[in-house]
Each structure stands twice: as C-alpha cells, then as structure tokens.
Specification:
six-stranded antiparallel beta sheet
Amino acid sequence: MKKFLLVILVALILPLNIKAEVNTILRVDTKGHKGLVRDICVTSDKKYIVSASDDKTIRVWNIETGKEERKILGQIGDGAEGKIYSIALSSDDKYLAAGGYLSFGGDKEYGRIRIYDFKTGKLIQNLESHTSIINSLCFDDSGKYLVSGSYDKTVKVWQKGKNGFYLDKTLNNFKSPVKKAVLKKTQDKFLIVTAEYKGRITVYDMNKNRFIEKYNLKRPVHSLAVSDKYVAACGRYNNTISILNLSLEPVDEIIQNNEAQGLKFSQDGRYLLAGASSHPRDCFVYDSKLSFKKISTLKKHKNIVFALNFINSFTAVTGGGAKNELCIWNFLTGKLLKTIEGKGKIVWSVGIKGNKIALGNTFTASGDWHFKPSAFEKVFDLDSFSVSEPSSFEGFKRILKSYKNYDLSYSKGKNNPRPDAVLEIRKDLRIITEIEKTSYDGFRNASFGFTDKGIVVTGGMGSLTAYSKYGRKLADFIGHTGEIWTLATQGNVLVSGSGDNIIKLWSLKGIDENLETPKKVYPYLNIFVSDENEWVVWSRSGYYNSSINGDEHVGFHVNNGSSTEGEFYPSKRFYKTYFRPNLIEKIAQYKDEAKGLEAFENAKKIVVAKSENILPPKIILNSEKNITTDNEKITIDFYVDPNSENEIQNISILLNGREINERAIKRKTKKNGLIRISKDLILEQEKNIIKIDAENSFAKSNPVYVNAFLKTPNQADIFKPGLYVLSIGVSKYLDKSFNLDYAAADAGSIAEIFGSQAGGLYNSVKAKILTDNEATRINILKGINWLAREATQKDVVIIFIAGHGINDDFSGYYFLPHDADREFLSGTSIEWTKFDNLVKNLPSKVILMADSCHSGNIAGGKRRSADITGALKEMMSAGAGQVIMTATTGGSYAYENKQWGHGAFTRALNDGLKSGLADYDKNNVITIKELDFYVTFRVKELTNGKQKPTTIVPESIPDFPVLLKSN
C-alpha cells in the first residue's frame, strides 16, 4: 500500500517539473518592498500580513516577529508587467487572488487574475476575461464569489465551482475605469458597491440582478470602503471623505488636513481608517459611533500611504512611506507598535571621483531639487570594494546642468500636466528644442544634465535616455525599474541612482551626436548598499562580489511560464558559479562585462553558464513545518526536485546546526524525476530547528526549515557539554614590521574568560593558547589537529584568531603566524582552508572569532592587505552550523588602541562577557544572539563607526548560551 501511495504522490508532482518559457531576471531583494505598497490583507488567525506592491512581489509577514515568511511570485517582464495592484484573501485563507499589470498572452493585454493556493503559494488558476489592468479584487465572506474591477470599465463576478472559479456575470455599464468593487452581504442581500474614476458610485443587487442605487461624487474617486451601514469614498484633489449610507444618501463628511487615499472599515464596521496621498502623510482613525470623530493620528510615514487594513479590535497595519514600510499600530491610541521595512533606501544623490561613487539615501534637497540635489552620505570604493562614511565629499562630480553656452530647464507639458514634463535645451539662453516626456518614455524629467561631451541625459520612471543637443535620441539605457532621481558623469562613465534602491554604472563610449540609430545600453555594473552597509556589486550576467551578507540582497527571479508560480533564488545560492570578485574588478577596470570576462578568462578559466540552465534543486516538504510533540523521535518526509538537467550532488539534513549522517539516502534520480526521503530524527532539546537543502554542481536549493518543539525533553540526555578553546594571537613577528600591540593579549583574555566556565555552563574546559613565538605555523597546525581529534558531537569549540591576515594574488586568504614570510605565503603561513576544513568537519558546535584584518601595509604595496570576506563566504557556503564572529570585513581595518588595552573587537567581547554587559535580559546567562547584538554596538561605539563587526548565526541553530555570569 505504501508503494502505491508513493507512485500516486510522484505522479501528482511530476507535471510541475515541465517548464515552459523558463527565464531568469536579476533583481534586488531588500528583504522588504522596494515599490509602492498597493494592498494589504490579514489572515483569519491574525498571525500573518500579506502585502502586494509595484515591485511585483506579494510578501507574507509574520506579525509577531516582523519577518518575511515567504514570497508569492508570478510571471514578470519589462516595464510595468507584473506589478500587483490588488489582492484578496478568502475568508478561510485557502485562496489568494492577485491582479494588476498581469499579461495573459501575445496581445499583451493586462487583464489576468491569478488564483494561488495561499498555503503552498502554488498558482492554481488564471482567470481571463478582463481586457485591461485590474484595480480591485474582493471575496465575499463565504469564499463563494470573487468580484473584480478593472480599467476596462467592467466589473466581473467569478463563482467557485468544482473545477475552480468561473465567470458568472459581467457588469459593463460603467462610463470610466472602475477603481474599486466591494462585495458585501447584508442580511439576505449580496451587494456590489463600485466606484468609478470619474466619481460615480453605484450599488448592484446580485439577487435582483440590477443596479439599485447610484451617486455622483463630482470628483475623481480613488478609494472606497463599505461596512454594514456606510459607504466611505474619497477622491483626488480634495481633502473630503464622503460618508453615505447603503442607499447612497449622504450622511456625513470628514474634512482632513491632507488628501486621503486608501480607506478601510474595521470588521465590525465601527472604525474607519484613512491613508494619505498628500502632506502631511498622516493616517487617521475615525469612530462611526461618535459621528466619525477622529480618535487617533498615525504618524510615521513620509510618503504616500493607501494600503491599509485592520488586524484585530485594537491593531491595524498601514503600508507605504519613503521606504515602502509596513507599520503596525494600536489604532485606538495611535502608538506605533512595530515597523517592518527592507534594508534598502531610495538613492537620492550620486557622485563620482575616479573609482569612487558617492551616494545619498536621504532626501535633503531644498528649493528646486532638480538643481539643488540631496547631500552625499556614503562612498563606495570600487578599488577596495568597501563602504565608508567620510567627513568630506570634496571632488565628487555630479552631472553638469550646463555645457559651454548650452543649459537646461524644465516646464509643464502640453499633454502632460507634470511641471517637469518638458526638458528645454537652451543655447545662449534661447530655447532651441524641447523634449516632452509621455507615459511611454519616463513621464517626466526627474533628473537631467550634460555629459562631458555635451550629450543630454534625462531620466524618469525607470526610463533613461541620451539625446543630442538638438533633441535627437541617441541611446536608451535599460535597467532601472524605479524613478531615476540622480545622475553623475565622469569621462565615459554615467552613474544613475533610483527609487529601485540601485546605483547603475553605464559606459558612454560610442555615444556621440553622429549616431544614426539609437543604441541600447545596459549597465556594466550595478551596486546596492543596504542600511547596514552590506553591499553587492553585480554584472548583467549575474557575476558578483559582495560583503559577507550582501549577496542575500540580489538574486534571480525565475519565470516558469504564465501558468506557474515564479521563484526567487538569492545569488548566494549560486555562490560556486557566480561569486567572482576578481572578475568584477576586471569589469570595473574595462567598464565592459564582455571585455572584463575575456581578460579574466586569460588569467583563470571559469564556467560561463546561463542562470536558467543551472537552477538549484527544490525541496518539497511533506511533513508539517511546525511540529509539537511528546515523542523525541520524529519523521521528516520530503521530496527533492532536481529542477534542472543537472544531477544532484548532495542532500543534507541539519539538526540544530549539525549534519545528520545520511548514508542510507539513495541519490539516483531519473530525468524529471523526484527523490523521496523519509528520515527518523531524535530531538535533543526543547526547541529544535531542522534544515533541509540540496545542491547540484552549480547551485544550492533554497533551504526548508522545520521547527520541532519537544514538550518533555529527556532529562537523562541533558548534561553539560565540554568546551575546547584554541586561542591564537600574534603581536610579535619575526618580521618586526608586522608587529601589533594587543593581539597576543587578546588571545590570552579570551582564553581566560572561557576558562572560568569549567563546572558552570561547561562540564570541563580544555584550552590551548598560542601567542607570539609559540604561534608558529607548525604549532598552529598542531592545534588544529588537536581540535579535530578531541572534540565530539556533544562539545562546544571556540576558535579565536588575532593577528594579521593577507590575500594572495588570487584572493586566497592566509593567517600570518609568528614565523610568516609574505614572499612565501604557501610555505610559511596558514592557508585559510585549514581553518575552513576544520570548522566544516567538526561534529561539535563551533564558534569562530576572527580578528585578522589589522591596519598596516603588510602587503608591501603589492596587494590589498586583508580582506577575509571571501574566505568566510567560502566557509559559510557549506551550509553547516558554525557561528562566525569577525572583527571586520570588506577590506576595512580592525583597530587597536592603548586606552582599550585590546583590539576593539576583543575589548567589546571582554565588556560583553567578562563584565556581563551583554546579558540584556538579566538572567545571568549570555546567549550568542545577545553577544552578537552587544559586540556590534560596542565596536561601532569604540571606533566611531569606522569598524563594523559581523556575526553569522545560521538559521539552523537556535539561540544558545555561551557564558554563565559569575555572581
């Protein structure tokens, strides 16, 4: 019987492997929305928020943690194709409907509605009848009906049948686009309340099959909300919210100090929440039982807000603002409870000086910002690949607003009401030509200027174009998806910054006024810098360099055809194939990906592969994602889908960060076949995290996590682990020019702190301390062998390294022992692979603390002296459960100071552990997450932000104690 069931399961899943129209698109993922938030739903259990955005994603957020649980994706394309304008969730949370700019075929009409299985994110049906974009979607309370409103001037009613949803009826007597259609059941009536753009509001009775009421608001309508008693509507260019009854008779008016956009009644109909489309961007809450008296103001957002919803009887969520953030409020008091936002920001200003790019993420312009741009805040260095925040930005060039006797200005268009719709090119103060933007080529001139050659460049709404001084188009720069706010030029380089959070570098070579046919130009490099100064630089083909966690912020959106859900894989899943720091350096040097690739291949061959041909495997979980049990033995059941023609090389299961031996797994698979794995695990503690992933020769799967909570852990299995400490610090070198002040003291201090834990948190502590002349190459290698030989599965290992590190000419990383010779690194230094192999293969829990990027020109001027990023990323790519704490990454330096008596990193560790300052919850136990939080704060404080430590705690590891405070 079991074999029969397995065949059925495989048969059901196999068709999902048949891929049509598979292609990949490189996209930034800031871990939050980076486009206007259009709509928000809340699940019936009040645990999750579902948000939809112009960034073409639907995201599901855990309300308690504020973290993104998953994305729900579909087919996307260039320009607006794929933007989500409206979503609706059925009352039982079974179906999620999505509409917007969703194309359904060759004529590219945007009228498709997607129906997803909300639990799995699978696209199960496409509804096709509308002929233009979808503005509004609404399920009735029973989930039987779905109502859609469209720009095509129709409303459609879809009914749930045995084989999915089908079209029940079309309402088509509307005179303008339908902005909102709300299905409301009152007593025994099904009413559809609609709002047209031009101001007409109607009520359609589904039982009588006719319109029964209508009302003209006499102004454009963009928002509508309906309760059991009232209809609320607001329109453009007006600060009034009109309140009607269900017979569409006016009963009240609300006058705001801004223009409302976005309206929602609470589930009981008592409260009305209003968004904002004009300054101030405050949202307001009104009480219908108090004649719609304003009871609270929600102050946080700095830009448009019209996506909003109620969570329960006292909390609500709003979405929008300058960072497209989600805010959770106590709407009765107006108190902000939580903010959910991404790690990116709009790029308001860029400048260039040599190989350095200045940028600003805060709108600081005053007056006419076209000519008075925002200030710079950071610098990204394409030589050292690092981010800094200098005190001066002298010498950075912006785009020129004049060239010889030419200058630029802007004005309102004839057909476009934007005040900057027209770009005027003047010669000797007289207009010689005008460029008017339309919705097809940018809509506005948000940024503009002259290159060094007198070419005019102008950008807006994702469109970036070059013109001659006489208005003839010379080139289209293709790549941005958001408003282009800022430009800079230097020689043959153009730099642009956008609302899509990306800086793009373009080559102007070959663009001159003699071009007969406009060129299509793609960026040779793209740069994203997060709020936390994590960064990633990537080329058009997807090759990249990044900070330690930067490659989580860019990846491949996979289009699997219009009838299948999309997928997203962060670039880090393709680490083995696409992480190429040296190649990115070559591309930056040649300002051309093809030439950079050619030069790089001459030095070192690499595999050139299209991303759609090397997709990683997929994990399909059959078990529950969250398990609560009294039994310490559980079974994990899942499929591995190869997802491509590439053979699966490895499948791994980690329990609390440690890999489970999987010799019994048969990894043979057929073309388009699946591997089914069922594995018994023994839970070892109260909270357990199980991580499952798989890899082929090119890429790793997105991991799947299972949380297993054991109600009654076996007390006999709970005992104190042993602790092994290998602490290495080199202050005194044979080559005295390397000498440091405190590295040896740092190593001794760490060993002392953890040595005191014997009999406390740990059953025993065994330490090996190697400092100065004892920290020779041979002794360090013996220490590595000691750990490999002694540490068991039940132990904890701490490895501390302080001293100098150095990169060779191929970006290999070495730690320099006491007897190192920089001219013979391979024979006198410790290649990082020694530590890498140790950490990956130890059966115990491992904490690696690395402080090996100290200042000083130890490279002798031949190479960058110390960038441990690549070495740590190689270690992380194994996906094992090691914790890594590093003093600094990305080519920046770790600092020492006499006043601290240590390096900044070790001083922070001392303060957090020895002095107990990392014990934030005051329970006398310091956990790894508490230590991470404290060290990050303390190092930045000690160095005035010059040094940024990084801690990587894999999601496969629950928070765990590292030190018990002494009383």
